[in-house]
């Protein structure tokens, strides 16, 4: 029919999917708790977020952001150092904002899950034991007390949109919570180590680079099983398994 918009499946896996119809994104999630968090976090965030057009559970309709993603994991970024610095500055604004009312994961929860994932990776022959052991040791540096801040929780490059050198918005807030500021910076620069200096410069506060690198290992170890089980390939060039190998 004339005038009908194409429907694009942006991402789809067990429990949730995101569709694009023209300039509208439709997020469908069986777990409305995640959507509750996303809506409240966007309302609280001091940085640009997508406009909520309507919500009719299990669907949340969001307006598309202008610009393009800062980058993609596994692909060289074509955006400017200034845009990466702007992403660091946006992260700092978020971290300086009042804390959300809900907690994040505790150190004990993260450490327990990490041990379980490492055991699964070795037992199932997904990765060599020495690669897992080395990165598990590196990850220990991230497992230290931190002062909680308002974190996005999944601040990967594909969730940050830019137009030229300016941030136009950040998407996908369902994992927002109180957490470690350096975790957000690590997720943002995962697989893009060459832009870590730009992000830190934009962030404008002292950071422990060894802890960021520890979060790279920890994030990758935690993600691999989920990615495999949901149809993604963490062994693609530049992705999680390459990140772990680079720590060797």
Automatic annotation (TrEMBL):
Pfam families, sorted = APH (PF01636)
Q: Give start and end of each Aminoglycoside phosphotransferase domain.
A: 41-203
Domain of life of the native organism: Bacteria
Q: Which PANTHER family match?
A: AMINOGLYCOSIDE PHOSPHOTRANSFERASE DOMAIN-CONTAINING PROTEIN-RELATED, AMINOGLYCOSIDE PHOSPHOTRANSFERASE-RELATED-RELATED
Give the protein's recorded name: Aminoglycoside phosphotransferase
| Species in which this protein is naturally found | Planobispora longispora
Upper classification of the source organism reads:
Bacteria, Bacillati, Actinomycetota, Actinomycetes, Streptosporangiales
């Amino acid at each position: 029919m004339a005038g009908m918009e194409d429907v694009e499946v942006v991402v789809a896996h067990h429990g949730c999917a995101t569709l694009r119809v023209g300039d509208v994104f439709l997020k469908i999630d069986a777990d409305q708790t995640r959507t509750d968090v996303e809506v409240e976090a966007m309302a609280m965030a001091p940085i640009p977020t997508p406009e909520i057009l309507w919500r009719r559970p299990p669907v949340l309709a969001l307006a598309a952001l202008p610009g393009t993603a800062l980058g993609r994991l596994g692909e060289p970024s074509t955006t400017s150092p200034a845009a990466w610095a702007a992403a660091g500055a946006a992260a700092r604004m978020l971290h300086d904002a009042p804390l959300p009312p809900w907690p994040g994961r505790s150190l004990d929860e993260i450490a327990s899950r990490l041990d379980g994932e490492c055991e699964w990776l070795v037992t199932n022959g997904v990765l060599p034991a020495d690669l897992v052991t080395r990165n598990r040791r590196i990850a220990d540096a991230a497992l230290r007390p931190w002062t909680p801040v308002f974190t996005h929780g999944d601040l990967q490059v594909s969730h940050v949109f830019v137009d030229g050198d300016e941030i136009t918005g950040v998407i996908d807030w369902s994992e927002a919570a109180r957490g470690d500021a350096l975790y957000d910076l690590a997720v943002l620069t995962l697989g893009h180590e060459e832009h870590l200096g730009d992000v830190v410069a934009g962030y404008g506060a002292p950071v422990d680079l060894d802890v960021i690198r520890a979060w790279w290992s920890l994030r990758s170890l935690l993600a691999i099983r989920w990615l495999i089980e949901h149809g993604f390939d963490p062994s693609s060039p530049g992705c999680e398994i390459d990140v772990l190998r680079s720590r060797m």
